[in-house]
Every structure is written in C-alpha cells, then in structure tokens.
Amino acid sequence: MNSMRYFLLAITAAQLAKTTNNDENALELNIFCAIANMAKDAKLENATASDLGQDYEDAWRDIQAIYTMTSNETYYEKGPVTGEKDKAGGGGKEPAYDSAWKTNKRKEFEDLKTKDFTGKQVQKYLRRAPSSFPQLTAIKIQKIYEQAAKLNSDVDQTTQQISAGEQAIVKAAHEALYGEDAAIKGDASDGADSYSFQADHGTACKKSAAAAGATLASDMVCLCASGAASQNADTNSKICDSTDTTFSAQQLDYSSQRGAITAFGHIMTSCSKKHSTPELNTANINNLLHAFRNAIGRHPGKGNDDHTYRFGKGKAASGSCSGEHGTADVCISYAQVLGKNTGRKDALTAIKWVDKLLTVKGKLATREQQIKRKQHQLSAMITLAAVAESLYEEAAHGRPQADTKDPIPKPDKVDPPQTKACEKHKKNKTACENAGKCEWKGKSDTEGNCKPKEGEGQKTQGPNDGTAGGAAGVDCGKHQVQQACEAENNDVKPGHKAVCGRIDYVDGTGKLPRPECGSSSFLVNKEISLMALAFVSLPF
C-alpha cells in the first residue's frame, strides 16, 4: 500500500520547483501510468499458493497410496476400472484395467519413502490386506478415498473455471487501455493502433470533445501532447515529465491518429521505465479510480470554464484543453461526457475506459471467489490425508474382527451343591463312582478328587438364571424390585465386579419386554454391544 501511495502521489520538490509548463501534469501522469501498466501487463493473483498446491498434491497422492495398499486383491493387482472390453470368446462385456498399473502407479505408491525413528529411509506404506484389520477401518478408508476423489474432481473443475476466465479479464483490461476492436484478443499481441485514437486532438481532448475518455491511451496522449505538430519541442512533453531527458526531448502531438500512436509509444516507454506495475485486482482498481476521480478538477479555474471536469492543468481562464503548450492549456476535458451524466449512480462510468475497468473488476471479484473456493478445497484434501494416515495406522496395527464361525468358548458354569456332594467322596473312589453324578480323578483308590461328571451340575447362563445368574448361590432373577436387586452387591468389595444389576437388553436377543435383575456379566455384554453400535453409527 505504501508503494502504491508513492506511485500515485510522489512528486519530488525539484519537479514542483520547475518553471511554468514543466511537470504541471506530472501527478496526473503518475495516475495514468499506474492504470496503464496495470491494464497492459494484467498481472493476476496466483490461483494457488505454491506451498499449498504442493501440499495438496502430496495429500492426494498419499490418500491414493493408502487406499491402494489396504485395498482388496482385485484392486491391488489390477487398479481402478478404466472401462469395458469384450469378453474373450464373446458373451458380453467385462471390466477393463490399465495393464501398466503395477509398474506405473502402484509402483509409485510402493516406492514412497519416509524416515523411521532412527532417521533411516523406509517404505512409507506397506501392503495390508483387508483380512488383517477390522472391517470398520476398511469401510472408513473407503469413505475417505471416495471423498478425496470427489474433492480432486472439484479442484479440477474450479481450476478450469479460473483458467477459462483469465483471458476474458485480460481482454477487458486491454480494451480499457487500447479500445474495443477485433484485433484485441486478450494476449501479449494486443497493442495500440488507429482504433485506439480519434482523428485529431480536438475530437479527443477539447471541451467540446464527445469522445473524451473513449480509451485510456487516447487520454494519456491528450495529457502530454500538443494539439498541433508544429509546436516547439522545448515546451512540449516537459509538461508531463521534465526529469526524463529522453522523454522530454520527444515531440509529442495529437494532430492525427498516426501522431497519437507515436506519442503513446513514448509515454508508455516512460511509464514502464519509471513506475512499477500494480497487480490487476479489485483493490488496486478501486484505489486507482479513486485517485483519478480526486484529481479531476484539482486545478482552479475562473468563470464558467468547466474546470471541474478537467484532468490536467489547463489554462486558468477560459481553458478549453486546446493542446496549446505555450499557455499550458494541455488537459482532457470530460465536460461533454460527465456533464450530461450527473444523474447516474456513478457518473464516472460515462468515461468508457473507466466503465471497462469496472467490468474487469466484476470479473476479478468472481475469480477471487473461485480462488478462495479452490484454497478451501486444497485445505480440505490436506485434512483428509491426515485422517487417512490415522486409518492406515489402524490397519497396520489393528487385528481382524472375530470370525463368527468360530465363537469364543464360554467358561463352564458349575452348580455348587453338586460339587459339594461329590467332594464328600474325595478319599473313596468306589463311593465317588457309586454316587452317579460324580467321577473319580486320582492316583489311587484313596488319593484323588471326586468331581461332578462333565455335563452334570453345569448350566448355560441366562439373564435370569438362578444360581449361575450371579455369584455362587445368588439367584439374581428372583428380585423384582430394583433396590432388592442392587442389595445383592452390598458385600462386594471396592474394585470387584458387581453380583447383580438391572438389565433391559440381551446381546443376540434384543430389548427385553421389561427390565429384569440379572448377572453383572450381562451388563458388560450390553455395554460392549451398545459401544459398537454407536461407533458404527458415527457420521463420517
């Protein structure tokens, strides 16, 4: 911003001390040079910050790599489906794949490196088959990949929209400077020609000129050139800049289109040499048009000389912007243009090149929104990559889900009374075996243990199972009142498992018709089941 202020307003004390006709339009030329350089070069904001763009590319690559290295065998071996092909021998279509998948894209993912805790370069992602980690992790990786693929497509679309709008912006900026013509394409080949200027100075610059403001190029010549080709060079271009001896030695005139083209060339050479080039953006357009607006009519006048509409010094009395350097009557009068448009919301739009710059501003505003959207998309991909990394760690170190075909065996539940009955015969093999429900396990007929036979005194635990429903000898199911159910836990020591508790859900069965008092082991099963359900139901 400071450089912009200097660019617009800085006129050295030496310039201000010059004699009449020297540098009197220097401030106005500064403003025009800034606008002209900006429009000519049309330097646009970079659509993607270099660091963010590279981070995005790395993130999308890593997500693809994680998805590939944890994918099913078909995808891992063949890659994504690229289309369809005829089945061998006919009979319909089948998926087509990239034959170079393994040696190209997959190899790129397999060759990615990272540093381990010792600083050694190691393979970043190892193959992890889906069978080696929880199915829920595989589902989440799939979701992340689908979101990332959609996001990548959105980024491509936004990039295309930004690119497609760039030429239209440059073209409109060049039209503000050079004028509208079929020759203006919106590229480096654009330049000033006869379509940029009027037939002579009177048509383009004077108080009576209806074509004032048709192009910025024409107004720039009006600001510095004489109306006739015969005026003395010593009192010519110095009115705009006497410090640049190369420029001030030029004879500038607007006596014809050809003379104007030559004069404009000298002016632009000075502008590009002495002034920087502002970026073409909405803020700079606003600032420069504000400076232009404030400089119109800055030189005082007398009577009804319409000095309010003059840009440049002009003659103090009855000045008509005649292009006469001897009397310093060099300026552009917008009297015919602005004087008839004071009722508009912004009368300045009656100046054609100003209106064209405002068109550029509108296109730039759209582009700036597209750039913001793209930056959000790039950041979102980087965030997704961080999530994918954590899921890869789950896959790398997780265990597969339990196979329901091989259930975990449940511990036997023993009936305490039957156990006590058998223990009475622990020193007598014959008595033990004659008891019917006991079997002898010992070294001799008198040395060993008498225990219940397998299947005898053993019960499958249920939510209301009497003895097995709680601790030994506790029938949790008999309690119908919550206080009585919880009273069974009075003797439980701190840190030990509760004996009984109220339950309303049994794993594998569902919700009970009414709450019951059951073994605390069912409370644990219930908690695990609900936790798993909640985890699967999390929004993703």
The radius of gyration is 44 Å
Gap between N and C termini = 45 Å
Question: What order do the helices and strands follow?
Answer: HHHHHEEHEEHHHHHHEEHHHHEEHEEH
Shape: elongated
> What's the arrangement of strands in the largest beta sheet?
1-2
Oligomer classification: single chain
Protein name: Variant surface glycoprotein 317
Domain Trypanosome variant surface glycoprotein B-type N-terminal: 8-377
Region (Disordered): 78-98, 395-422, 440-473
Biased composition (Basic and acidic residues): 395-415, 440-457
Short structural summary:
It comes from Trypanosoma brucei. 44% of the residues lie in helices and 9% in strands. The N terminus and C terminus are likely disordered.
Model description:
With 540 residues, the protein is mainly alpha-helical. Among the domains are: 2-32 and 194-370, no CATH class; 410-458, no CATH class; 463-540, no CATH class. Helix content is 44%, strand content 9%. The strands form 5 sheets. A two-stranded antiparallel ribbon has the order 1-2. Strands 3-4 form a two-stranded antiparallel ribbon. The two termini are 45 Å apart. The model is unreliable at 1-20, 403-413, 457-472, 505-511 and 521-540 (pLDDT under 50). Residues 422-538 form the Trypanosome variant surface glycoprotein C-terminal domain. It comes from Trypanosoma brucei.
Helices and strands, with pairings:
Blueprint: H1 2-9, H2 13-16, H3 26-41, H4 50-69, H5 73-78, E1 81-86, E2 93-97, H6 105-110, E3 113-115, E4 121-123, H7 135-178, H8 201-204, H9 216-224, H10 245-248, H11 257-274, H12 282-295, E5 310-311, E6 332-333, H13 335-338, H14 352-397, H15 416-423, H16 429-434, E7 438-442, E8 448-452, H17 482-487, E9 500-506, E10 510-519, H18 520-536
Antiparallel strand pairs: 1-2, 3-4, 5-6, 7-8, 9-10
Helix pairs in contact: 3-7, 3-9, 3-11, 3-12, 4-7, 4-14, 7-14, 9-11, 12-14
Function: VSG forms a coat on the surface of the parasite. The trypanosome evades the immune response of the host by expressing a series of antigenically distinct VSGs from an estimated 1000 VSG genes.
GO cellular component, one term: side of membrane
Subcellular location: Cell membrane
